[in-house]
Design goal:
Elements (H helix, E strand, L loop, with lengths): L3 H15 L7 H12 L4 H12 L2 H7 L3 H16 L3 H17 L4 H13 L3 H13 L3 H25 L9 E4 L2 E5 L15 E5 L2 E4 L5 H8 L18 H14 L6 E4 L2 E4 L11 H9 L58 E7 L8 E2 L10 E4 L16 E3 L8 E3 L2 E3 L8 E2 L1
Parallel strand pairs: 2-13, 3-8, 7-11
Antiparallel strand pairs: 1-4, 2-3, 4-12, 5-6, 7-9, 9-10
Helix pairs in contact: 1-2, 1-6, 2-3, 3-6, 4-6, 5-6, 7-8, 8-9
């Protein structure tokens, strides 16, 4: 887009003089932009007006994380309006910049600060306190300033703790940082449309060698909801919320700050906390592949000698095998190249992410869609067909769902400076 900085100045002037609400009226915007630009930027203005008709500005105004929203808006402009990627990207980035740079009213500032403060941002708590104090709302101001002070103390205590992190337990393995191609090629047998390939960079982490066993689950929570009983069997019949609860309880038992704050059915992930958590979908697939780009971590095929699934329906018309009709003890089959057991089969494994379409951009430690109705689960189970055990296959369920083929595996963050990434 030519002279983007000049158009940015013009659009910023329009918003300053007419208010952010002017963007809701593309026809009036067209007239003002024509006057301000004196007939210049015709193509750019036309694409900008299309983005306003598509509601891109409203989406950006509502988004708490614009960097995750921008790729979705670019894709929308491409698919619905036939705009090329380059023009779509520059238009959406331009909108994001002028919206971010605009002078906010006190009401807008307060609304933004309140949202951030409720997520636990101590800077927002402090700034909101000052804003309310200047507005004469002293009782509310004192509450937010006190919250900011307590938050700072907590952060200091966490920093001291993180300088002396507890060692990872022996039932977890360190997975090195690296990059990989997430998703599947169009030529992969059994591929689904939601497996678009894209490059992902993943930091190092510790991951359970196996899914959580019934012994571990009962030791932490005092109950065993599993249908197929056995201390060394994977715990199943657990919901996503049950898995989150286990992570927090085990973290507290080992003196680690829990990763999750649970408020009713809302779960907030504190990414700086050193406690146990569920792997993201990207972390799970990276660990599952173990460096392999084939359908399975062990290659192009998968037999019932390599994992527990419904052998009556092997992958890609392969040789039929055993169907056990139940879970088996963890570690009953060979591990992948990282030393992880049962990444294919036995039980599906809950991941952190809300289910949503992949971005086609290069991603660094992606965490999935910002919201949704279903959480991702991966790996297939004892009752699954061979096709659903593929490394790239994506499952999903509502977070309250429980079933005898559904368990989970835990992750522990690595507290260390960023290392050079290995490329797979």
């Amino acid at each position: 887009m030519k002279a983007g900085a000049d158009l940015r100045t013009i659009l910023s002037r329009l918003i300053k003089e007419r208010g952010i609400g002017i963007l809701d009226n593309p026809k009036r915007c067209k007239a003002f932009l024509h006057d301000y630009a004196k007939g210049a930027f015709k193509r750019e203005n036309r694409i900008l007006l299309l983005s306003l008709e598509a509601g891109c500005h409203r989406t950006l105004l509502r988004s708490p994380e614009p960097e995750k929203t921008i790729p979705r808006l670019i894709e929308k402009l491409q698919e619905e309006y036939g705009i090329t990627y380059a023009y779509a990207r520059e238009t959406v980035v331009l909108l994001e910049q002028v919206i971010a740079d605009r002078e906010l009213s006190d009401a807008e500032k307060r609304a933004i600060l309140e949202r951030a403060a409720r997520r636990g941002d101590y800077r927002a708590e402090y700034e909101l306190g000052l804003l309310l104090k200047n507005a004469g709302r002293f009782e509310e101001a004192a509450r937010w300033l006190e919250a900011a002070a307590k938050h700072c103390i907590t952060l200091y205590e966490e920093r001291v703790t993180e300088e002396r992190p507890a060692p990872a337990p022996e039932d977890l393995l360190k997975i090195p940082a690296g990059t990989f191609i997430m998703g599947s090629p169009e030529t992969e047998w059994g591929r689904k449309d939601n497996e678009a390939r894209h490059e992902v960079l993943v930091g190092a982490f510790y991951l359970g060698k196996t899914t959580v066993t019934q012994r571990d689950y009962e030791a932490a929570l005092g109950v065993n909801p599993s249908l197929f009983k056995g201390a060394d069997m994977p715990v199943e019949c657990v919901s996503w919320f049950d898995a989150v609860h286990y992570c927090n309880v085990r973290s507290a038992a080992e003196g680690r700050k829990p990763a999750y704050r649970v408020e009713g059915e809302e779960v907030i992930w504190n990414r700086s906390a050193p406690g146990y958590r569920l792997p993201t979908e990207a972390e799970w697939e990276y660990a599952c592949r173990g460096g392999s780009s084939a359908p399975f971590s062990c290659g192009a095929g998968f037999s019932t000698d390599q994992g527990n699934y419904n052998g009556n329906y092997p992958y890609n018309h392969g040789k039929r095998g055993v169907y056990h009709g139940a879970t088996m003890p963890v570690g009953s089959f060979p591990p992948n190249s990282f030393g992880l057991f049962d990444m294919h089969g036995n039980v599906w494994e809950w991941c952190w992410d809300w289910y949503g379409p992949y971005s086609r951009e290069i991603q660094r430690d992606p965490t999935g869609a910002p919201s949704g109705s279903d959480r991702v689960c991966r790996g297939g189970s004892w009752s699954s067909l061979g096709n659903t055990l593929r490394s790239a296959n994506r499952g999903l369920n509502i977070p309250s769902y429980r079933n005898a083929d559904l368990g989970f595996r835990i992750l522990l963050p690595v507290s260390q400076p960023p290392a050079r990434l290995r490329r797979f």
